[in-house]
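Hallway conversation turned thread

IA: we were arguing at lunch whether anyone had actually written out DUF1080 domain-containing protein end to end. Turns out nobody had. So, for the record, here is the sequence (237 residues) and right after it the structure tokens. Reply here if something looks off.
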Amino acid sequence: MKHFIPVLALSLITVSTSAQKLNTLTKQEKAAGWKLLFNGANTDGWHTYQKKEASAAWKVEDGALALDQQAKKNGAPGGDLVTNDEYENYELTLEWKISEGGNSGIIFSVHEAPEFSATYLTGPEMQVLDDAKHKDGKIVKHNSGDLYDLKKSTSFAAKPVGEWNKVKIRKKDGKLTFWLNGTKTVETTMGTDEWKELVANSKFKTWKGFGEYAKGHIALQDHGDGVWYRNIKILVL
């Protein structure tokens, strides 16, 4: 007796077996010049801000870079994780997941120098947040997908806590564009009159050096809460 697999079931099998593995590049991505910033196995290519190596609080967990708050309680130093290399013109894609009530961020154009004690003193940020339960969720320009404290998202696109959110940040000749889960949330250009006005109306208005560096490191923020990042890829433009 012959047995037939329904067409729908066959298509589902095809999709599941062809799904891309975490933290890998497709042939098309490789051909286009994309590079992995996280290999899925360790923190190679990253270090804690103003340190030589990555803090032990940043671990690999189920294929993601995870900030382990228990490790910090046990004595492992925390701190923002930054790329070893600096970037100016690029497209950055990644996925993030935040803990309940958690706060983090993707900070870019970070100038690592002794006079700047933290990444956010020079680098603008795409906010990562549990908008429902963190107090910042009630503050304008502090929600997920916002250009933190500078420009509010055009629409709210974040998924609930526990779900993965997909990010794309494009920075080309100062022009910034943010996407969250396929929705364009922010667009502006650094160094323009609009940018200067955004800074002047923010908490950063008196911060010398903030948003002034065209080239810099990319950082994943330790804001004291559990957070996970994976599939971190960059295309230099």
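OS: looked through it. The chain has four helices and 13 strands.
IA: good, adding that to the notes. The domain at 36-236 is CATH 2.60.120.560 (Jelly Rolls).
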